[in-house]
Every structure is written in C-alpha cells, then in structure tokens.
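Researcher: If convenient, please comment on what follows.
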Amino acid sequence: MEPARTQTHFLAHQTEDKARAQTILEHLQGTAALAQDFGSAFGAEEQARLAGLLHDIGKYSEAFQKRLQGQAVTVDHSTAGAKEAFAQRQLEAAFAVAGHHAGLPDGGAATDSPEGSTLCARMKRTIPSCDAWHTEQPALPSARRPPQIPMDNLSEAFYIRMLYSCLVDADFLDTETFMQGRAAPRGGYDSIPVLFHRLQQYIAPWQNPTTPLNQKRCEILEQCLHAGQTGTSGLYTLTVPTGGGKTISSLAFALAHAQAAHKDRVIYVIPYTSIIDQTAEIFRKVLGEENVIEHHSGADYQVNGDQTDPSFYRKALAAENWDAPVIVTTSVQFFESLYGNRSSRCRKLHNIANSVVIFDEAQTLPVSYLRPCVEAIGQLVQYYRVTAVLCTATQPALQPLFAELAPHLSIREICPDTQALYSFFCRTTLCQAGTLSLEDLAARLNAQPQTLCVVNRRATVPELGALVAPEGRFCLTTLLCPVDRKRLLHQIRSRLQEGLPCRVISTSLIEAGVDVDFPTAWREEAGLDSILQTAGRCNREGKRDAADSLVSVFRLEGVRPLSSIQACADAAHNVLRQCSDPASPQAIEAYFTFYRTLKGNASLDAQGVLDAFCKGIQGCMLPFAWVAEHFHLIDKSTVTLYIPVDQGQSLIDQLRAGYASRSLYRKLGQYAVNIYPDHLKNLLDAGTATPLDGDSYVLTDLSLYSRDTGLALQAETGKALFG
C-alpha cells in the first residue's frame, strides 16, 4: 500500500530531469528561516521572515504550475506576495517581495495605472488566484519594524534595501541548495579571533624596532590595536601620513575591534582596482588565502561546470554575498550596491551589517556623490551596527557633512596627534615652479636622473615624453592596458632600486597605492590632495633630507586646466598662496573646506539622489529604480577597446567563437583600454578598429599601440609617438 502523502502537490522548483521537486511550502519556510537569520543582525528578523513566507505565494497559481510542467505560460509570481504584504500594511516587505526577481521597483504614486511597473501600479493589478497558500499557511506571523530606524524617507529607503538583501540572498541560497541536492560549501572560514591571532603573529617580529621610522610605525600600530580593543562601535578616522604603515595598522584596528565588539567581518573599501590586488595579497599573506575575498570587476571566481574544489567554490559564492570574514572591494562596488536595486547588486548588503568597514584613501570619495556616500556611511553606523573608519593621509574634512546628515554621530581619531605624525613623516618640500613650457619642463626632467612628473591630460604624456631622454623613460596612462602597466611598474621599481636612470611621466594613475620612491617629483597644478599623493611617491622611505626632496608644482604654458579639476586647482592655489606649509593637516582641512565652498552644496549630490528619496521625483516616491540608473561613481561614457597582444588575442578569439562568460571578460580586462566615443570614431573611420560585441571593440592595427606608451590618441599619428 502506498504511504500517505504528507506534502502538497504545489511545486516551487524541480530539477531539469524532473527527478526531484521542491514544494512551495518547503521553499517558503526554508527561505524564511534564512532571511530571519540574516535580518537578526539589525533587528529585522520578523519582517525578513514574513517576506520569506510571502515571496513566492504567487507560485500557487494554476498558471505557474503549468509553466513548471513545461507549458509556455508567462506568470508574474511576485506581485501576489507583495499585495498580501501591502494589505497587511507591511510596506517594506511588499517592496522586497515585489522586487525579488526584477529588482526593487519605484514606489510610484496613487494615480499609477495597473500596467505600470511601480509598486503602486502593481498593487492595482489583477493576478491569477493563488488561494491555496492560505490552506498551507493559515496564519502569518506578526512582524515589527526595527525600532532604531527612523521613519524618514531616506532611512526607510535604506532599510528596504537591507530587508530586500535578506530576502534575495535567502531565496538564492535555498534554491541553490535544492537544485544541487545538498548545501553548497559555504562557510568554513577561520573565526575572527583566529585571524586576529594570525595578525599578532605576523607583527610580532616588529617589536623592539631599532630605527626611528620603524619605532614610529610601531607606535601607530599599537594605537590602532588599543583603539580597536577598547573603542565602542561608531565612526572613526585614521589619519596616517604616507609611509606610516597605514595598511597593516588599519587591518589591526579592524580585527582587534571585530574581536572585542563581536563583529562578523571586515570590509576593506579601496578606490581603485589598480591597487586592490596588492592590498588583498598583503591580507592573504597575513590571514591565509581562503579567508580573504576580492570582489571587483577584475576578480575571477567564475565556477566552471566541472569545478569541484570546495575552497574555490566558496570564494565564488562569497563574492556574491560577502559572507567571508575579510572582503576587499572597490568604492564603486560598495556604494553602487548600497544605491542599487537589482538582486545581483543587493544580495550582499545584509552582510555589511555588524561589520568593520575601512574606507581606504577616503579623500577620493567622488565630490559629485559625496553627500549620498556620507549619508550611506551614516546610515550604516547609526542603525546597522557598523564601525566605519575613514583612512587616509589627507582627511577630506567631512565633519560638517556628517554633522548635517548624521548629527548624532561623533567622529573619533584613532591616532589623535596628527600634527606630530605629520612633522615626523614630513619627507618632502613643496615648491612653486611657476609656468613652464613643455621644453623647459623636459629640460628640468632631463637634468635629474631619477624623477617623476605627473600631468593632468593623457595627451600631455607622449608630448612631454618625446622631449625626455630615451634611456629609462617611462610613460604611464590609462591608454596602456593593465598587463602592460604592471610590467612597466616592475621595471620602474627595479631601475629605482639599482640607481639607473628612471624618468616617469604619468597621469594621476600613479598617485594612489603605487609603491615607488623617487628622489624628486613634479606635479602639474591640481587639487592639493592630488599634489600630496604625488609627494607620497617622493622620498617615500625617508632616506634623503626633506629639503632636498623637492616636489615642484607647475603650470603648463598655453594649457588651460581641465574643467573637471578647475575648482580643485583653484582651491589648491588658494592654500599654496596662504599657507606657509601647504602639506600640514590645517592646510589640508582648509583646502577641502574652501574647495567645497567653491563647488557649492548642490554639486555634492549632482544627480539629486538624496532629494529623490526625501521628496520624490516627478511625483514618484521611493524611486529605487530611478536612483539605481543614475547613481554611477565612475564615468560610464567610455567604451572598451581590446588590444590583441599576448594572451589577449586568444581570449578575443574565444569571445568571437561564442564562449562568452564573466570569467572570460574578466581575463580580457587585462588587455582592455577605455576610450571616449570620439576617439573610437576616429579609429573606426580609419579602419583600425572593429566591433567585437555590442559594447566593445578590437584594435585591428597594432601599429597604433605601443606596449611601452599605449594607444595613440590619433590614428594618423600613432606610428610616431616619439622621436
């Protein structure tokens, strides 16, 4: 006799071979349990559980069951759960459920028609009956909103995204477990106490330093350890001059604090992909390979069909939802996720809660998005148990913005005697070189066997390079693909160490995180923070007198400042004129204050992101989709041109053969140059480039690309960049 069936015949998923099936009730309960656990980090466990129980009730419809059996039926299975949550006055859960596949919708307005995509529109839709869910779930649990989160629109929008994150990650994980027939190999990382012990072992040989420089570095390290172990959760700054050991010291604070305050993980946010690799490599050396996850456009954790290595699989999954103990990511990935609306972006957000977040090179937060970025940091610290650290040698004086946007937060400096630190680490002398012609500048560079010159325009690099002595001449711009930039930087470091001629002309790409040490440096007029970043590449190890380590600021004859940096240059000029020591902490604060005054308050949120949430936009309230479309930290107007050198050619061939994958695109990124549309048009008109896919192109005339100088700016002049 066949045993009595105890499970419903309503199915949520089945394997491709239809050998196994998961009931809707199993999936709802499994998702709800995971979402509840994720939401507990910030008091949202009740609403997260409710969202999990409602998110797929639309699958109880006859139409969805037919679709699951292979019929070509289009089914909206998200709106049913959203309508039920909305009916129960659970607006936050309604948003999360409505967007768990297509992305968080705009809230809309009461006048929206049912055909629209906003939440208000969807609440008016007629949907297929799914009443069978009442039989299996006769009563839903009550659900309270976390009491610490204010009711204002900004806080509400931020909370909805965090709740949404709990739901979509739980939905992914429960579905993944069923489809694979077993739980994916997640977790398995070392605990925070174990990682902190490894850090202590790593720094143990540094005790009892013998040189003044190492003694000061150890003092900074000890201050970071003490502050991490004794400080409460909140907002901190770590102002350490270049050469002070900022990377390890900030990690020491983060791990000490994570252990003492019972935080779940450390997230290290870095502005540039060009320096993320070296930071992650340091952390892996200290903490172990498997405990550190990179998440950015260049990190390759693509899982192949035959990939069975559990450690590799864990990395791939951790990059999706940040459940590893140490995450190294970019500012773009971090903030665009916090203001995103798609599940792929947002599923990791709940794992930011109850963590330590280090913002490296905090002065690089983009000015046009500065207010939204400060608002996000304030939300995380005030309501999501996050400890945040603004880490830099040139603090961007954000106190007024935090005072406005998060008035209850106080900022604590981890190493409070910043003036004494600056005086100790002062290794260069800034001086004004006035207006110089290219020929005059080249003559001064040629008079110095080893020197660095940073200019504002890519076009200036080859023009100046053509006038510099060929031996040991290097030209660095983003017109070089990453694989060639890395190769040239290795040669530069070798020549500097060996005392060989080494004259580098570069754009600002060399200013942050590139570990080089020149005896002198030159910087075209720019923002004071950029000038000081260039100074950080001069006498980096303090082996020469500061008076002899000149950083000369110049203006190029006949060249107008770029409009994008005009205000920066004007503010720097003001500080350089008024301050006897323009590199001092007081001068840096004066620079950022004056600069933001020049730009005006509106320019700190150029897209109107905060107003869009506070006031709505064109009658649409809580415009999640609109903001996600408009919030981009980097310029999206460039197009990708692949350079078929070395492995680049075979990777391009694979893409042309149809083997497109995230893994392949990430590998191709090492052979990519981003150019503006007018540059691309010149190449296409000259017949020297060809389309590869809808968004990228391939250089077909390799005479236009030099592996030492990069892509020619003009197709007709590309063959003679240097004399």
User: Anything to note?
Assistant: The CA atoms of residues 85 and 578 lie 60 Å apart. The two ends are 92 Å apart (CA to CA). Residues 153-180 form the longest helix (28 residues). The first strand starts at residue 11 and ends at 14.
